[in-house]
Amino acid sequence: MRNLKIVLAYDGSEYAGWQVQPDPATVQGTLASALGRLTGEKVLPQGSGRTDAGVHALAQVASFETASSIPAENFVKALNDILPASIRVLEVSEIPAGFHARKSARAKIYRYCIYRGAICPPFLARYVWHYPYPLDEDAMKRAAGLVVGEHDFTSFAAVDAEREREDGEVANVRQIFSSVWVREGDELVYSVRGTGFLHHMVRNLVGTFILAGKGTLKPADVTKILEARNRSAAGATAPANGLFLVQVEY
After folding, report:
1. Can you point out the beta strands (E) in the chain?
2. Looking at the annotation, which residues are catalytic?
3. pLDDT tens column, 209-248
4. Residue 246 and residue 182: Cα distance in Å, rounded?
5. What is the pLDDT of residues 112-162, one digit of tens each?
6. Domains in the chain: ranges and CATH
7. What's the CA gap between 190 and 176, in Å, rounded?
Protein backbone atom coordinates (compact mmCIF):
# COMPACT_ATOMS: atom_id res chain seq x y z
CA MET A 1 0.00 0.00 0.00
CA ARG A 2 1.14 3.52 -0.82
CA ASN A 3 0.40 6.57 1.31
CA LEU A 4 -0.48 9.70 -0.69
CA LYS A 5 -0.88 13.31 0.41
CA ILE A 6 -3.29 15.64 -1.42
CA VAL A 7 -3.27 19.43 -1.19
CA LEU A 8 -6.56 20.88 -2.39
CA ALA A 9 -8.46 24.16 -2.55
CA TYR A 10 -12.23 24.49 -2.49
CA ASP A 11 -15.13 26.90 -2.46
CA GLY A 12 -17.21 25.61 0.43
CA SER A 13 -20.34 27.58 -0.45
CA GLU A 14 -22.28 24.62 -1.84
CA TYR A 15 -21.00 21.92 0.51
CA ALA A 16 -22.22 20.78 3.92
CA GLY A 17 -18.66 21.00 5.20
CA TRP A 18 -15.69 18.66 4.83
CA GLN A 19 -16.92 15.54 6.61
CA VAL A 20 -18.78 12.92 4.59
CA GLN A 21 -22.53 12.69 5.30
CA PRO A 22 -25.26 10.32 4.07
CA ASP A 23 -27.15 12.81 1.91
CA PRO A 24 -25.70 16.35 1.53
CA ALA A 25 -22.72 16.95 -0.72
CA THR A 26 -19.46 17.31 1.22
CA VAL A 27 -15.89 17.93 0.15
CA GLN A 28 -14.60 14.67 1.64
CA GLY A 29 -17.42 12.69 0.06
CA THR A 30 -16.91 14.28 -3.37
CA LEU A 31 -13.15 13.66 -3.23
CA ALA A 32 -13.68 10.07 -2.07
CA SER A 33 -16.00 9.43 -5.00
CA ALA A 34 -13.44 10.77 -7.47
CA LEU A 35 -10.65 8.68 -5.93
CA GLY A 36 -12.86 5.60 -6.10
CA ARG A 37 -13.46 6.13 -9.81
CA LEU A 38 -9.72 6.41 -10.43
CA THR A 39 -8.42 3.59 -8.25
CA GLY A 40 -11.37 1.18 -8.22
CA GLU A 41 -11.01 1.13 -4.44
CA LYS A 42 -13.24 2.31 -1.61
CA VAL A 43 -11.19 5.25 -0.35
CA LEU A 44 -12.01 7.77 2.39
CA PRO A 45 -9.33 10.50 2.43
CA GLN A 46 -8.56 11.86 5.90
CA GLY A 47 -8.41 15.66 6.10
CA SER A 48 -6.28 17.83 8.36
CA GLY A 49 -9.49 19.03 9.99
CA ARG A 50 -13.22 19.40 9.42
CA THR A 51 -14.18 22.70 7.86
CA ASP A 52 -17.85 23.58 8.40
CA ALA A 53 -20.57 24.17 5.83
CA GLY A 54 -19.75 27.29 3.83
CA VAL A 55 -16.09 27.48 4.93
CA HIS A 56 -13.43 27.60 2.20
CA ALA A 57 -9.89 26.27 1.90
CA LEU A 58 -6.86 27.52 0.01
CA ALA A 59 -4.70 24.53 0.97
CA GLN A 60 -6.52 21.78 2.82
CA VAL A 61 -4.46 18.61 3.21
CA ALA A 62 -5.78 15.05 2.96
CA SER A 63 -4.08 11.66 3.04
CA PHE A 64 -5.12 8.20 1.91
CA GLU A 65 -3.73 4.74 1.28
CA THR A 66 -4.01 2.99 -2.05
CA ALA A 67 -2.78 -0.10 -3.86
CA SER A 68 -3.04 1.78 -7.16
CA SER A 69 0.11 2.12 -9.27
CA ILE A 70 -0.98 5.48 -10.76
CA PRO A 71 1.98 7.90 -10.46
CA ALA A 72 1.35 10.59 -7.84
CA GLU A 73 1.71 13.44 -10.34
CA ASN A 74 -0.92 11.87 -12.62
CA PHE A 75 -3.51 12.06 -9.86
CA VAL A 76 -3.61 15.87 -10.12
CA LYS A 77 -4.91 16.05 -13.70
CA ALA A 78 -7.04 12.93 -13.38
CA LEU A 79 -8.80 14.14 -10.23
CA ASN A 80 -9.35 17.65 -11.60
CA ASP A 81 -10.94 16.13 -14.69
CA ILE A 82 -13.49 14.37 -12.47
CA LEU A 83 -14.04 16.85 -9.63
CA PRO A 84 -16.41 19.83 -9.91
CA ALA A 85 -14.80 23.22 -10.56
CA SER A 86 -15.41 24.17 -6.91
CA ILE A 87 -12.75 21.66 -5.80
CA ARG A 88 -9.23 21.76 -7.26
CA VAL A 89 -6.37 19.40 -6.45
CA LEU A 90 -3.16 21.42 -6.30
CA GLU A 91 -0.63 18.71 -5.51
CA VAL A 92 -0.37 14.97 -4.88
CA SER A 93 2.78 13.40 -3.43
CA GLU A 94 3.86 10.05 -2.02
CA ILE A 95 4.71 10.23 1.66
CA PRO A 96 5.97 7.88 4.42
CA ALA A 97 3.50 5.35 5.82
CA GLY A 98 3.35 7.08 9.20
CA PHE A 99 2.03 10.37 7.82
CA HIS A 100 -1.58 11.28 8.64
CA ALA A 101 -3.09 14.56 7.44
CA ARG A 102 -4.67 15.35 10.83
CA LYS A 103 -2.48 13.58 13.37
CA SER A 104 0.80 14.76 11.82
CA ALA A 105 -0.23 18.44 11.60
CA ARG A 106 1.80 20.83 13.76
CA ALA A 107 0.05 24.14 13.05
CA LYS A 108 -2.71 25.69 10.98
CA ILE A 109 -3.39 29.15 9.63
CA TYR A 110 -6.89 30.51 9.15
CA ARG A 111 -8.02 33.80 7.64
CA TYR A 112 -11.33 35.60 8.09
CA CYS A 113 -12.38 38.42 5.72
CA ILE A 114 -14.80 41.23 6.55
CA TYR A 115 -15.84 43.60 3.78
CA ARG A 116 -16.17 47.13 5.17
CA GLY A 117 -17.39 49.00 2.08
CA ALA A 118 -20.97 50.25 1.86
CA ILE A 119 -21.80 47.96 -1.08
CA CYS A 120 -20.33 44.48 -1.33
CA PRO A 121 -19.44 43.45 -4.90
CA PRO A 122 -21.51 40.40 -5.87
CA PHE A 123 -18.38 38.50 -6.85
CA LEU A 124 -17.04 38.80 -3.30
CA ALA A 125 -20.25 38.11 -1.40
CA ARG A 126 -19.61 34.37 -1.05
CA TYR A 127 -16.17 34.93 0.47
CA VAL A 128 -16.57 37.77 2.97
CA TRP A 129 -18.77 38.90 5.84
CA HIS A 130 -20.24 42.19 4.68
CA TYR A 131 -20.14 44.49 7.72
CA PRO A 132 -20.38 48.17 6.67
CA TYR A 133 -21.29 49.45 10.15
CA PRO A 134 -18.97 51.54 12.40
CA LEU A 135 -16.16 49.62 14.09
CA ASP A 136 -13.16 50.65 16.17
CA GLU A 137 -10.65 48.57 14.25
CA ASP A 138 -7.80 49.48 16.61
CA ALA A 139 -9.79 48.04 19.50
CA MET A 140 -10.28 44.83 17.52
CA LYS A 141 -6.54 44.61 16.92
CA ARG A 142 -5.84 45.00 20.65
CA ALA A 143 -8.42 42.37 21.52
CA ALA A 144 -6.96 39.90 19.01
CA GLY A 145 -3.50 40.14 20.54
CA LEU A 146 -4.79 38.93 23.90
CA VAL A 147 -5.46 35.37 22.70
CA VAL A 148 -1.81 34.77 21.76
CA GLY A 149 -0.24 32.10 23.94
CA GLU A 150 -1.51 28.87 25.47
CA HIS A 151 -5.06 29.10 26.78
CA ASP A 152 -8.16 27.07 27.49
CA PHE A 153 -10.50 28.14 24.66
CA THR A 154 -13.69 26.60 26.05
CA SER A 155 -15.39 30.03 25.87
CA PHE A 156 -14.75 30.09 22.11
CA ALA A 157 -15.66 26.48 21.31
CA ALA A 158 -18.99 25.18 20.08
CA VAL A 159 -20.75 23.01 22.62
CA ASP A 160 -20.02 19.86 20.66
CA ALA A 161 -17.95 17.29 22.53
CA GLU A 162 -17.42 14.97 19.58
CA ARG A 163 -15.97 17.73 17.43
CA GLU A 164 -13.76 18.96 20.26
CA ARG A 165 -12.18 15.50 20.51
CA GLU A 166 -11.37 15.48 16.80
CA ASP A 167 -7.63 15.99 17.26
CA GLY A 168 -7.37 13.46 20.06
CA GLU A 169 -6.96 16.03 22.84
CA VAL A 170 -9.25 15.91 25.84
CA ALA A 171 -8.79 19.48 27.04
CA ASN A 172 -9.70 22.61 25.10
CA VAL A 173 -6.21 24.02 25.53
CA ARG A 174 -4.58 25.34 22.36
CA GLN A 175 -1.52 27.47 21.64
CA ILE A 176 -1.94 30.52 19.41
CA PHE A 177 1.26 31.82 17.81
CA SER A 178 -0.17 34.91 16.11
CA SER A 179 -3.54 36.69 16.03
CA VAL A 180 -3.77 39.90 13.99
CA TRP A 181 -6.20 42.12 12.09
CA VAL A 182 -4.92 43.89 8.97
CA ARG A 183 -6.74 46.38 6.72
CA GLU A 184 -6.42 45.47 3.02
CA GLY A 185 -8.34 48.10 1.05
CA ASP A 186 -12.04 47.63 1.81
CA GLU A 187 -11.38 44.36 3.62
CA LEU A 188 -10.53 43.89 7.28
CA VAL A 189 -8.69 40.57 7.47
CA TYR A 190 -8.07 38.46 10.56
CA SER A 191 -5.20 35.96 10.43
CA VAL A 192 -4.57 33.42 13.16
CA ARG A 193 -1.94 30.69 13.45
CA GLY A 194 -2.04 28.03 16.13
CA THR A 195 -1.44 24.40 17.02
CA GLY A 196 -5.08 23.58 16.38
CA PHE A 197 -8.60 24.98 16.57
CA LEU A 198 -11.80 23.83 18.24
CA HIS A 199 -15.13 23.60 16.45
CA HIS A 200 -16.27 27.17 15.57
CA MET A 201 -13.29 28.63 17.48
CA VAL A 202 -12.10 31.07 14.81
CA ARG A 203 -15.63 32.25 14.00
CA ASN A 204 -16.39 32.71 17.70
CA LEU A 205 -13.20 34.72 18.14
CA VAL A 206 -14.21 36.96 15.23
CA GLY A 207 -17.71 37.42 16.66
CA THR A 208 -16.16 38.49 19.97
CA PHE A 209 -13.67 40.87 18.37
CA ILE A 210 -16.61 42.50 16.57
CA LEU A 211 -18.09 43.29 19.99
CA ALA A 212 -14.84 45.03 20.90
CA GLY A 213 -15.07 46.99 17.66
CA LYS A 214 -18.64 48.04 18.46
CA GLY A 215 -17.66 49.10 21.98
CA THR A 216 -19.94 46.47 23.55
CA LEU A 217 -16.93 45.15 25.41
CA LYS A 218 -13.42 46.43 26.07
CA PRO A 219 -10.43 44.68 24.47
CA ALA A 220 -9.21 43.68 27.94
CA ASP A 221 -12.47 41.78 28.48
CA VAL A 222 -11.17 39.07 26.13
CA THR A 223 -8.89 37.88 28.95
CA LYS A 224 -11.88 37.59 31.29
CA ILE A 225 -13.82 35.68 28.63
CA LEU A 226 -10.95 33.20 28.30
CA GLU A 227 -10.84 32.74 32.07
CA ALA A 228 -14.61 32.20 32.25
CA ARG A 229 -14.39 28.99 30.18
CA ASN A 230 -18.03 29.48 29.29
CA ARG A 231 -19.33 29.76 25.72
CA SER A 232 -22.04 32.23 26.78
CA ALA A 233 -19.36 34.72 27.85
CA ALA A 234 -18.12 35.21 24.27
CA GLY A 235 -19.71 36.79 21.19
CA ALA A 236 -21.92 35.26 18.54
CA THR A 237 -20.51 32.96 15.86
CA ALA A 238 -19.44 34.90 12.75
CA PRO A 239 -20.84 33.72 9.38
CA ALA A 240 -19.04 30.78 7.77
CA ASN A 241 -18.49 32.33 4.32
CA GLY A 242 -15.73 34.71 5.47
CA LEU A 243 -13.49 31.92 6.76
CA PHE A 244 -10.62 30.25 4.88
CA LEU A 245 -8.22 27.49 5.88
CA VAL A 246 -5.01 28.95 4.48
CA GLN A 247 -2.23 26.51 5.35
CA VAL A 248 -1.45 23.35 7.30
CA GLU A 249 2.08 22.98 8.64
CA TYR A 250 3.88 19.66 9.24
Report:
1. 2-10, 46-47, 56-66, 87-95, 107-115, 129-130, 149-152, 173-184, 187-194, 243-249
2. 52
3. 999 999 999 999 999 999 999 999 999 999 999 999 999 9
4. 16
5. 999 999 999 999 999 999 999 999 999 999 999 999 999 999 999 997 644
6. 2-95 (3.30.70.580), 107-249 (3.30.70.660)
7. 13
